[in-house]
Amino acid sequence: MTKLLEANDLRKVFGGAVRAVDGVSFSLDERETLALVGESGCGKSTVSRLILRLTDPTEGTIRFEGQDMGRMSQRALKEVRREIQFVFQDPFSSLDPRMTAGDIVTEPLAVHGLIKGRAKRRDTATDLLKTVGLSAKHVNNWPRQFSGGQRQRLGIIRAFALGPRLIVADEPVSALDVSVRSQVINILQDMQEDKGTAYLFISHDMATVKHIADRVAVMYLGKIVELAPKSSFFSAPQHPYSEALLSAVPASHPDKRRERILLQGDPPSPVNIPSGCRFHTRCPLAQELCKREEPPLAQVADNHAAACHFAQAWPMRSRVADTSASGP
User: Fold this and answer.
1) N or C: which end of the chain has fewer CB within 10 A?
2) Residues 292 and 275 sit within 8 Å (Cβ to Cβ)
3) Residue 286: which of 248, 236, 245, 324 has the closest Cα?
4) ABC transporter domain spans which residues (predicted)?
5) Residue 147 and residue 151: Cα distance in Å, rounded?
6) 3-state helix, strand, coil in the chain (%, to 5)
7) CATH of domain 5-213
8) Alpha carbons within 13 A on the beta-carbon side of 27
9) What angle do CA 139, 212, 104 make, to 5 degrees?
10) What is the pLDDT of residues 182-222, one digit of tens each?
């Protein structure tokens, strides 16, 4: 069965020295949500731009429904872009302040020649706005007249206007209040159920990821270091960096609280990536082997892969908690 999206060994080097993405591979099925998580600067947003062909990879391939996007003509690429849409992090800066809400949500249809005439455009805009809880009275409003949550709803329905197969959502709720965040996540899930769309959901918020994702891919310094189904990732992470990320998630009950793991220092620069495991400079479990050899992303359980030399040696949570107790 052909995957909806396949990224193979993606690399992106800026300025000949900055390895922003350094050998990333993953796939995405129809109707699936893959969450791409990690600290700021790990390469998540660069991956999203590579998938959308907003920037070209230095190496690697991207296939959509089996077709190599790097070999497509501009005409073929335009057709594929109808099937892949984007939801931006900042709902205000992503909307043209000179356009009304109606024009914003129907612009993709006009660009692709799918809608003509002012009356038809207004009717279509009204129908689209209603699907995200807005109404006909909002059609002629300007972006400045909406709240942050309403603006993000505009961004979401604009992305869905063409009926895409895949939506890349880059931190789509990080700028919103918690209550509004929940509303927007529910809209995304309802739209996915109704339209069958797949999501590449980029985030640093593990609580949101736990709510929306089917699988989780953890990035660190340009590489995926863990890739797993949501259930096994949250219950039994196999990389110490993943465990540190999860330890910062508020627990729903005191008995389920993880001991907070405080990593020392900042991530190394992508200009000067450490030898061996690129996490060893901050890892509480690092040994001499980690400094010499880079671990591959390998299967450690059913559909669960991790790039750690000692992923299966003993329970990750207990050994990270033990070593972190003496940390700063």
Assistant:
1) N
2) yes
3) 324
4) 5-246
5) 6
6) 35, 20, 40
7) 3.40.50.300
8) 11
9) 20
10) 888 999 999 999 999 999 999 988 989 999 999 999 999 99
